[in-house]
Each structure stands twice: as structure tokens, then as C-alpha cells.
User: What shape does this take?
Amino acid sequence: MKQVSFFFTTFFVLILLSSCNTAANSGTTTDSQNTNQNKQSLGRVQNFAEDQKRSVPTENILTTKKLRSLPPLSETDSIQITNKLHEFHLEAKITKWQLISSVQTEAFTFNGSVPGPVIRAQEGDTIRVVLKNSLPEETSIHWHGLHVPNKMDGVPSFTQHAIRPGETFTYEFVANHAGTYMYHSHFNSIQQIDKGLYGMLIIDPQNEKLKHDREYMFMFGGWNISEKTDKQGKKDNQGMGNDPMSRMPKGQTVPLKKKGNIRSMMEHGLQDKNDQNNPHASMEMPSQPSDKAGSSVMGMDYNYWTINGKSFPDTQPIEVRNGELVRLRLANISNGIHPMHLHGHDFRIIAKDGHPLSVPQIVNTVTVNPGETYDVDFIADNPGEWLFHCHELHHTTNANVEPGGLMTIVKYVK
Assistant: This one.
């Protein structure tokens, strides 16, 4: 029996030792395989990185080096009078104006457009503007940011009499400082400006070293557009559903609707002032929300935002070619604050309110406050289609429907 027991014990010990050796050999093989796989993966990553280095030249990597190397704008210290005269004829009148293809309003305009014509001259030139008032109320023109003789400043009761309906007034002054400026009504200003009575004023320098390949001008406006009311007094929300939250009063949360069709057609009228003898008769605070175009007086209850009188998707695209230096002139005539953000690029702030920055600031967002102008430029070095829009995001809606408002596309073309 002892021999049999010894035999079985020896047999089981041998089997156990054999199993341990097999497991040990297996573990060694697995560790070796994992190590080899890791080495192979690392090799592939290194090879990919090396391939990328070879396929993408260093100079094509997007940086701000080229942007930082550009010179600033030249500052004006003195100008030479040129004796050149630029004469412009403007007519202030009511015009039907489309913010987008489906939304039309009655606007106050210069020469039938919003903004009015660009008034442009060179430093040292003389600008003469003959304004005919075809509005049903008085008006005037102020040359925002530009130094002019006192009697040409366009502020009724201070520097001139208001221009009555049917009358003509002539403004004349020397363009004395290069930069981006605005012109706008300075009578019943809240209503007249919000209804579209403004334009761009550009003074070019006599000498400028910095040259741009393209230039775009953007004026930011705000509008209060009422819904269309039919004969039965019902609101027309065609294409928008029946969302009762869309007309919540100012100051309350307004939930955005789902993206979809933009409001079809909205109409509103302009009401003449009741008392032409009181130039401020229409400046009284309304007891209820206004149905007129423009702001609800001091409420500034805008529901449409425009670039050059148009809301996205009807805004003008910024078309560029690869490698071009592009200048944007930004002017905020509205009573909203607009942090304008550019996708895919950085840009330089090269001037503010007509004054060049000696050291341009490189950013991708610039906040344009009411009444301010900025000049910015960027190098078109990242092909594609990119957004340029206000980052106060309810300003990128049309009547609370996105996308819309202060938005356009940077579009590369061949």
C-alpha cells in the first residue's frame, strides 16, 4: 500500500509542476507580445508625426506671427488743404425696407436705403452735403466723431434750427482727420435713428503705408418690428407656430423657438407727430408696447438686429481670397452692445473711433459699444466658410428665432 500511495503522490506532484511551468511560459509569452505591440503602436504614432512634419510645411502652421509683423495705421499729425470738393445730395424720406426677404417695414432713410450712401473723401478735401427733408417731421444730420465748425454740427436748438419738412439745408466742412465715422439724425434721435436714418462717413488719409486687399463696412442697427395684425385683430404667425411665449415683455426670459422658417410678413405703420410745434411731442414714454417701427422709445425693445440694414441670412458675406489682408470697418449705431467674434482667425484692432492704435491688439472678439467705431484687419489664411457674428447671442436671432440678426459668413473664393 505504501508503494501505491507513494506512486500516486509522485504522479500528482509531477502534474502540478508541469502546469506551473506552462503557466509561467504562457505569462512570459503574453508579456512579450504586449511589449511588442506597444512598441509597434508607438512606432506608428512616431511615423505619423514624422509624416505630418514632412507633409505640412512649417510656414503653413497657423500662428499670429504674420499678423503681428504688420505695421500699424499711420496717425494724422497735419494735413494739406487740397481744394477738392465732394458734393453729395441726400433726401430724407420714408421708404419700404426689407430686413430679410419675408420682413418689410417702413423706414426713415437717406436716399431710400439703410444705411444711407457712404460719404467718403480724403483728408484736406471739402465735403458738401445738401439735405432735402421729405419726412413728415423735422430732422438734421450730425457728423459723429468728426470735428466740424460749430454751425455744421447738426444739433437743433444748439447749432442750427431743425430742418422742416420740404426744406433744404447745406452742410460744408473740411475732412480734417482720417478714420471711420458715422452720420445720423440728431433730431428726435431715438426714433429716427432706429428707423434707419444713418450712414457711414469715411475719411481716407493723404499718406498711408498699410495697404489692404479688401475692405468691408458694417453698421449695426436695432429694430422693433410688430407682428402683422389682420382685420379681425388676430396676430399672424405664419410659419412660426402658435407659441404664446414669443411676445413676452422686456426683462423676462424669452425661450428661443426651434430653428425653422423665419417669420413670414410683418407690417407696421409710422404715425406722424401730433404736435409739429412741439419738436419733442413724440418723445413721451408709451403706456404700452409700441406697434411702430423703431425702438419702443426708451425701452429699446429690439427684436431684429441688422448689419447694413439686413438681418442674417440676407447679410452681405465677407468674400476673401487666400492670403489677402482684409479690413473691416465696424460702426454701432444701435443702443445694444455687440461683442463681434470671428471664427477661424484672429484679427487686429487697428483703430478706435477714427484714431489708430500705435500697437494694434490681436484678439478674436471686439466689443463695440453704442456710438463706437472700430477698424480691424485679418489675414485670410484658413480657407473655408467661417462665421462672423455678435456673441450676445440673442442678437443672432430674428424675432427670437435663430439663426439671424448680427451674423455673416467669411467666404473664401477663387
Summary: The helical segments are 2-55, 65-68, 189-194. The chain has three helices and 21 strands. Confidence is low (pLDDT under 50) at residues 229-292, 294-299. Residues 96 and 106 are 5 Å apart (CA to CA).
